[in-house]
Amino acid sequence: EGDRKMAPKRRLRSSGGQDPPSKVFIRDETVAEYIRRTVLRIPRSETSKMLTSWGFLSETQLQSLKIHHFKEKVSEAVVELCEENQATIKDAAELDLIYNYIYQDKKTWIVYQMTREDDEDAVIFNWTTFKKKFKCTLLSVLKNATISFKEYEDNAVWIRIAWGTQYTRPNQYKPTYVVYHSQTPYVFITSSRVKRNNTLLFQALLAATCYKDIHEMGLRSHCLNSLKVILFKRFSQTYLPQPLQEKNSALENVDSTIIL
What we know:
- It is a single chain.
- By secondary structure, this protein is an alpha+beta fold.
- It folds into 2 domains: 31-105; 109-239, S-adenosylmethionine decarboxylase.
- It is 41% helix and 16% strand.
- The protein has helices at 29-41, 47-54, 59-64, 71-84, 89-102, 127-139, 195-209, 224-236, 244-254, and strands spanning 109-115, 145-151, 156-163, 176-181, 186-190, 213-221.
- The chain has a 6-stranded antiparallel β-sheet, with helices on both faces.
- Helix 1 crosses helix 4, helix 2 (47-54) packs across helix 5 (89-102) and helix 8 packs antiparallel against helix 9 (244-254).
- It is globular.
């Protein structure tokens, strides 16, 4: 659900009863409006770069955009081009994921740690297997969800989940974002007020990573990179607990907005 193609409306043409009527394409207003709002959030100086990174529009289409015009006009022009390409909600979600990767400090990130049994060996990470297990686990419980993945150079897997219910389509305006570094047991998740969604997310993460349990670590911040510095240093020390004063010193040197 939510993956209907978006294209301009076309009327059925009479064929004199000889040929079947032409196919009707219906514009998906959900897709159009979400793309429009996402483009409006992008700073003018970054619009071309971000749309290029998205990779959904052709080079010719990108060159046709007049970025120096009012942002409202630019967003409408982007929507029209997306209609030509028959964009789906998954295409729109990928643009949103790219935006939030670049402007990740606009979110509050909460740190979670996954654990295994003491006698369990680590599992070699496989990107394809991870995506398949994550989607199958989550969608087996909740069909109405939009799930998007993107892998970055630093072994970071970014996931975006727009949640629906048994009877409603996914709410694209209140998604959850997840960042998982495959060589560590740490997961960074944006805050959510819906506990049921968190439970489903944790189940999908554990199934996809072959860990047994997950718990919140009591660290949160707008600065995702600062959280990574703290956690990856701890990981490199093979989980030896830091003295309290050393941990506090590390926090002071990284980011004073981190909440313990």
